Amino acid sequence: MNRFAPRPRGLPPRTSHRVISPAARAILATFGGILLAAAPLARSARGESVLLPPRAEQALAAIYGGNPGKGIVLAQALEREQAGDPLGYLLEAEARWWRIYCSACEIKWGMVDAWKRPKKPGDGAYLALAAKAIQLARARLAKSDSAEMHLYAGMGWALEARLYGLRDNRTKTARSGVAARAEFLQALRLDPQMADAKAGLGLYNYYVDTLSPLIKFLRVFLGIPGGSKEEGIRQMREGMDRGVLLRTDARFYLAKSLRTYDQRYDDALAAAAPLAADYPRNPVFQLLAGNLNAELGRKAPAEDYFRAAVAASGNPAEPDCAKRMRDLAESFLASLR
Predict the structure, then answer these.
(1) Other CB atoms closer than 10 Å to residue 223's CB: what's the count?
(2) What is the pLDDT of residue 334?
(3) Could you tell me if 75 and 218 lie in one domain?
(4) For residue range 245-262, what is the model confidence (pLDDT) as tens digits?
(5) Are residues 269 and 235 located together in one domain of the fold?
(6) Of 118, 133, 169, 177, which one is least surrounded by beta carbons within 10 A?
(7) In the 3-class helix/strand/coil scheme, how is 23-45 assigned residue by residue?
(8) What's residue 200's pLDDT?
(9) Same domain, yes or no, for 178 and 36?
């Protein structure tokens, strides 16, 4: 089937549709969007989170810059250097997530995203990293309660939730997502100004509110707390503007959410464009910005972003992702012609 063919029969028109991916229907799939945590060092100048050690900053730069393989190497070095700290394991899982996300991306209804993929052999290693981070955070919390460690535990649960959501495992997604929410709330109880915890909670609040009325009704009986989309947007914006750990991630998922669920393309592009500018070698960000320009009917800038995605898909260390991104960008270009 042509990926740019008219929407399947029965799907509402573009101006009003609520495209719910299997991950979103799993209640908290896009906790897949929640990414990283860092070592509990000194407070940052913003006062809402923690300072990252240099190696962690390098790992983040590699991951968001389109080189998760380098991010994995740096994260594993942190695991060796900081025994008992969740940071390295969270960073390594984050890097592996971007490989998973890239390999699962496809175009549906004119939108590029990782909609769904089956269980694969590499999933075990990813989930083991998330479990290790949760275990280490809990061990530290048993000795001393801290907002940072609750944040890290929430990150671990969120890492689990996004993969289960991508695999459309609704029960496990909901369980992990609710656990993540509880940890973010505990972090905010101890540090009400922690913007990164607000970003994580914002993702929960937004996606729970996108569910159908029937699922919203059933979640009451399943013990799944509700949320507010507008509150979620506000919290994600706060994480995007003032966060340290989740700043880039909050921006990426806010842009995708505003596009997919609200059709607020101008607002989504305002969030996505800085990602494409700051990380020109990451084809995922270039594709998203191009996709949003195409939705707005801006053909020339859309073509520029899609060509940038093709150019960015030349990393020999990530051949599978590079080919996938290049094929998607070329498909978008062909649709514009």
Answers:
(1) 9
(2) 97
(3) yes
(4) 889 999 999 999 999 999
(5) no
(6) 118
(7) HHHCCCHHHHHCCCCCCCCCECC
(8) 94
(9) yes
- Residue in the structure block whose two tokens are 């549709």: 17
Predicted pLDDT at 242:
92
Q: What is each CA distance from 155 to 195, 291, 296, in whole angstroms?
A: 14, 28, 34
For residue 246, give the amino acid letter: L
- Joined together, the tokens standing for residue 74 give 């740096």
The total number of residues written for the chain in this structure? 337
Helix (H) or strand (E) holding 108: strand 105-108
- 186 and 111 in a single domain? The answer is yes
CA–CA separation, 100 and 97 (whole Å): 5
For residue 97, CA distances in Å to 27, 39, 101, 193, 302 come to 19, 20, 6, 28, 26
pLDDT tens for 79-88 read: 999 989 999 9
**Integer Cα distance of 211 and 244 in angstroms:** 29
Segments of the chain scoring below 70 in pLDDT: 1-50, 212-222
As a dihedral over the C-alpha atoms of residue 122, residue 89, residue 180, residue 66, rounded to 10 degrees, the angle is: -70
254 and 229 in contact (C-beta within 8 Å)? no
Residues 6+ positions from 45 with CB-CB distance below 8 Å? none
Per-residue model confidence (pLDDT) at position 34 = 39
Q: Is 320 exposed, middle or buried (0-12, 13-18, 19+ CB in 10 A)?
A: exposed
Q: Which two tokens stand for residue 243?
A: 């966060």
d(CA 7, CA 22): 17
**Among residues 218, 245, 272, which one ends one of the domains?**
245
Q: How many structural domains does the chain have?
A: 2
